[in-house]
Specification:
Layout (H helix, E strand, L loop, with lengths): L5 E7 L6 H11 L20 H6 L6 E7 L2 E7 L7 H8 L4 E7 L6 H12 L4 E6 L8 H12 L3 E3 L1 E4 L7 E4 L4 E5 L8 E4 L6 H16 L3 H9 L5 H13 L4 E5 L8 H11 L9 E5 L5 E4 L8 E10 L3 E10 L1 E3 L3 E4 L4 E4 L2 E6 L2 E5 L1 E3 L3 E5 L9 E3 L5 E3 L9 E7 L5 H14 L4 E4 L6 E5 L2 H14 L4 E3 L3 E2 L2 E3 L4 E11 L2 E13 L6 E5 L8 H17 L10 E9 L7 H18 L3 E13 L4 H10 L3 E7 L4 E8 L6 H8 L5 E11 L5
Helix pairs in contact: 6-7, 6-8, 12-13
């Protein structure tokens, strides 16, 4: 298939805006599914994990392929819950375009803003689908205004709704100036075209002019035709809107009600007409391993193969399924390939294209396409794979730090190894999930993005992997940092196994602004000492950072500099230097007045107006600070910051104080000194 006919798209939105329902309709109308599966009764084909069906939410981004009007559409259905932000992040990283589904009742919700910001980071062109026009309180024009105000974008409607709530009956196609209805008898498959209702003709003319005005700003030809009073061809307008969409200067807006099967086919047309193909997107940036310089990776079938693993999912029978996006060249079944990130050779045993959870075996995967490799043993999310001849590392994905932990232990000793194996597997799948074994107590501690995130992972361990385990209460994952600049020298001189071991290390530590992370530099030239001793110092520093200072939490926001070393050719060993570095680091940090940092969360709360005073009071009593509040038609939106430790169980408290009508999401904001100002 011609590469200009491929669309790699994602569907992104706030939880419950109707992403999966919309995807189910797309699969039905493109002929991939013979019937429509519903989220509400646990039959959606994209939510194929048992827990997704139980909870009615999307957890794992499912990939599927379908065809519409001679175009191949690779769709990734991403989660809307903020705890699964990594799933959204890694999907956006490999997409060429996205559909933002926005609820016509709730408008732009907190998580919509989060995913919109993520899409801006990866420069992903978007179209908007305003869904749920059949719901009480639906207001299409208010949503369009809110999108313009909040996202500072030129939102351009291509369709208008006819009626709203229970009277919503179809859409008006502004370009063809016709009223489209969808036959409920055959699940909306058959579309009928009618004259525009009399009472909507003036409104249609107003919005048609706005549409032409937006297209004219991207096309001189349309401007000339407009001023000359000449008719403007539909193809010209679509070409101009496509240019604006790809360049992200405008965002086309469509409307419908997926659950009622209204407006999905026009959305499919817009995917094909307006969203970019792999040929339209700018070249990927990468780093040449050989020269350590930035290079551009162009879309080229004849070039050496280069692909990015954006997701790993474990299958009981097939092992790890590596979801890849190919940027150049062709990947072929049965060939060997280099994992450039790990510097290890791997074999492509099988290549498959996924239709939700049903695989279709293929022989090759070309540039611009998305598929699954089976047979890799050492791959991780974010790894670059390619040929040994041209080694280029594609830019890495950045994931937020886990902020919440729980202790987990197997019910029987025989399950201990099985549990560790399963935890290793889950951390390979999900970069925001980590685990470690406490060396003193032997206790296993797992960390993630939120209570729901850990709850889902623990349920997967017990239900899917059949491991019986006991889980403790959630604990906050703290960090440590320093507040003073200190320099220290440590001499290690001991006899081990009858052999003298000596080393002298001088380190200085300095606090950095919040969010800076760790910086390690050396004033000592590598050429002045054996490389294994130099590496031992570096190893000692990074091991000590993980071990903490006073409380055993990881150290952040500090600069560590190796100022000087002394070594003896006879008695210095890597062990001595690692030990001296660890002692030196710990001593210097203890003298640098260490403080404990706690995670501060950004909290977004949407509540009916009558409860807003109570909600704000409750947040303040939990140590929160209200940042802003805005009124909407049906509810108020409160944005605040609060320490994570005070937010455990907050969802229950919010539900009971708002009679179940308040909703909230939280995401990590920053670390701040415990008990201090933030």
């Amino acid at each position: 298939m011609d590469d200009s006919r491929i669309r790699n798209i994602g569907i992104m939105a706030h939880i419950d805006a109707g992403k999966t329902t919309t995807t189910e309709r797309i699969l039905f109308y493109t002929g991939e599914n013979h019937r429509i599966g519903e989220v509400d009764n646990g039959e959606a084909s994209m939510d194929f994990l048992e827990q997704e069906q139980d909870r009615g939410i999307t957890i794992s981004s499912a990939a599927t392929t379908c065809y519409w009007k001679d175009h191949k559409i690779n769709i990734i259905d991403t989660p809307g819950h903020v705890d699964f932000t990594a799933e959204v992040e890694r999907s956006l990283r490999v997409l060429d375009g996205a559909i933002a589904v926005i609820c016509a009742v709730s408008g732009v919700e907190p998580q919509t803003e989060t995913v919109w910001r993520q899409a801006d980071t990866y420069r992903v062109p978007r179209i908007i689908f305003v869904n749920k026009m059949d719901r009480l309180g639906a207001d299409f024009f208010a949503v369009v205004e809110e999108v313009k105000t909040k996202f500072k974008v030129d939102a351009v409607p291509l369709y208008l709704p006819v009626g709203s709530e229970s009277t919503f009956s179809g859409v008006i196609d502004l370009l063809d100036k016709r009223y489209i209805t969808f036959d409920s008898g055959d699940q909306g498959s058959r579309m009928s075209y009618h004259e525009i209702p009399q009472d909507m003709k003036d409104l249609t003319d107003i919005w048609y002019e706005k549409l032409i005005d937006a297209a004219a700003s991207m096309s001189d030809e349309i401007t000339e035709l407009f001023f000359a009073g000449e008719p403007i061809a539909k193809e010209l307008v679509i070409k101009a809107l496509r240019k604006g969409t790809v360049e992200r200067t405008c965002v086309p807006v469509l409307v419908g009600a997926s659950l009622k099967n209204i407006g999905v086919q026009p959305l499919l047309d817009a995917i094909v007409d307006l969203l970019p193909s792999p040929l339209d997107i700018p070249p990927m940036k990468g780093i040449s391993v050989k020269h350590n310089t930035e290079v551009s990776v162009k879309h080229d079938l004849k070039a050496q193969p280069l692909a990015l693993i954006f997701k790993i999912q474990f299958d009981r029978e097939a092992g790890p399924l590596c979801f890849v996006r190919v940027y150049s060249g062709v990947l072929r079944k049965g060939t060997a390939i280099l994992n450039i990130s790990k510097k290890k050779r791997e074999r492509i045993n099988r290549l498959v294209r996924m239709h939700a959870d049903k695989p279709e075996t293929i022989d090759e995967l070309s540039a611009g396409d998305i598929g699954v490799i089976i047979g890799f043993k050492n791959a991780q999310t974010g790894d670059t794979i390619g040929s040994e001849g041209v080694q280029i590392l594609l830019e890495k994905m950045h994931f937020p730090e886990p902020v919440i932990s729980v202790a987990i232990e197997p019910r029987t000793l025989s399950d201990q190894d099985k549990l560790k194996e399963a935890l290793q597997m889950l951390s390979q799948e999900d970069p925001t999930f980590t685990w470690k074994e406490n060396s003193d107590t032997g206790q296993l501690v797992i960390s993630g993005m939120g209570e729901l995130h850990l709850d889902v992972l623990v349920t997967r361990l017990t239900k899917e992997m059949k491991i019986q385990a006991r889980v403790g209460n959630p604990q906050v994952t703290y960090r440590e940092t320093i507040t003073k600049e200190v320099s220290r020298t440590e001499v290690f001189d001991k006899v081990f196994g009858g052999k003298q071991q000596t080393a002298s290390v001088t380190l200085s530590v300095k606090p950095l602004p919040s969010g800076s992370g760790i910086r390690y530099t050396s004033k000592v030239s590598e050429k002045t000492m054996p490389s294994e001793l130099f590496e031992a110092v570096s190893q000692g520093v990074f091991n000590s950072i993980k071990s903490g200072i006073k409380f055993g939490y990881e150290v952040v926001d500090a600069q560590i500099t190796l100022d000087a070393i002394k070594y003896s050719e006879l008695y210095s060993t890597p062990f001595a230097f690692e030990a001296a570095t660890a002692l030196c680091f710990e001593g210097a940090c203890r003298d640098a007045e260490p403080v404990l940092l706690e995670p501060i969360m950004r909290v977004d709360i949407v509540v009916p107006s009558q409860y807003v005073g109570e909600v704000m009071g409750s947040l303040t009593s939990r140590g929160g600070i209200i940042n802003s509040m805005e009124s909407r038609t049906l509810a108020d939106h409160v944005i605040a910051k609060a320490p994570l430790a005070q937010l455990f169980g907050y969802s229950t408290a919010l539900r009971s104080s708002t009679q179940g009508r308040g909703t909230f999401t939280m995401e990590f904001s920053h670390f701040a000194p415990k008990g201090g100002q933030f």
